[in-house]
């Protein structure tokens, strides 16, 4: 079972990397309006590094918690900017939580989303409304927890997660940035979608595609 679960997560990180790479110009363009115009490049480099390290693992022996631990280290090594520690902490939190449930069950999937949210919030000290990636991650995590409470099936759970993330990311265009480089712009940050929230949606969409399409084979 752990081999199937490890392969599922390997596939997930590949999907994320491909999706981020395809959107990196759009992400950097969004960042250009309120930041350093390098968010797409940074995220692309980070996930390429993750996948390069994951190819060195033996999927037959690896546990899901190990996959996330490797991802945390690889992302941090590749991305020195603020995004690096945020996602490294997110992956590390997911890794720690998975040690108690390596099954990638629907409950475990919901836990991954919430632990990633917790890691980003722990490291970045942000909250909803700051015009950051948390404006996508917080509603996504809330949707995951609610879906599990209602015992939704995997497809329904991930649809709710992604819908919440997309709505959250879109809402950042009407916010004034309170954190990060964009905060220096004050009112001029209005009217622009936060690039971190936009990339969070891409990540969550790739996670949804993986768990809905491949995840059934990864857990009993």
UniProtKB/TrEMBL annotation:
Keywords annotated in UniProt: Kinase, Transferase
UniProt entry tagged with the keyword Kinase: yes
Gene Ontology annotations of biological process type: glycerol catabolic process
InterPro entries: DhaK_L_YcgS (IPR012737), DhaL_dom (IPR004007), DhaL_dom_sf (IPR036117), Dihydroxyacetone_Kinase (IPR050861)
Residues annotated as domain DhaL: 7-209
Listed GO MF terms: glycerone kinase activity
GO terms for cellular component: cytosol
Keyword Kinase: yes
Gene3D superfamilies, alphabetized: 1.25.40.340
SMART domains noted in UniProt: Dak2
PROSITE patterns reported for this sequence: DHAL (PS51480)
Record-given protein name: Putative PTS-dependent dihydroxyacetone kinase,ADP-binding protein subunit
């Amino acid at each position: 079972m752990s081999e199937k679960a490890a392969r599922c997560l390997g596939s997930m990180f590949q999907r994320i990397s491909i999706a981020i790479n395809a959107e990196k110009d759009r992400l950097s363009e969004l960042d250009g309006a309120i930041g350093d115009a390098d968010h797409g490049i940074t995220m692309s480099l980070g996930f390429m590094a993750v996948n390069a390290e994951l190819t060195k693992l033996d999927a037959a022996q690896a546990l899901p918690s190990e996959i996330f631990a490797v991802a945390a280290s690889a992302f941090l090594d590749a991305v020195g900017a603020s995004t690096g520690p945020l996602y490294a902490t997110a992956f590390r939190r997911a890794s720690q939580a998975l040690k108690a449930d390596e099954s990638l069950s629907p409950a475990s999937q919901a836990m991954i989303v919430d632990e990633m949210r917790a890691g980003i919030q722990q490291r970045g000290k942000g909250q909803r409304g700051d015009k950051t990636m948390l404006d996508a991650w917080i509603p996504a995590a809330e949707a995951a927890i609610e879906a599990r409470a209602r015992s939704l099936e995997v497809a329904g759970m991930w649809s709710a997660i992604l819908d919440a993330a997309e709505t959250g990311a879109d809402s950042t265009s009407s916010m004034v940035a309170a954190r990060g480089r964009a905060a220096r712009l004050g009112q001029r940050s209005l009217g622009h979608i936060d690039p971190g929230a936009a990339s969070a949606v891409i990540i969550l969409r790739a996670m949804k595609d993986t768990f809905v399409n491949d995840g059934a084979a990864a857990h009993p």
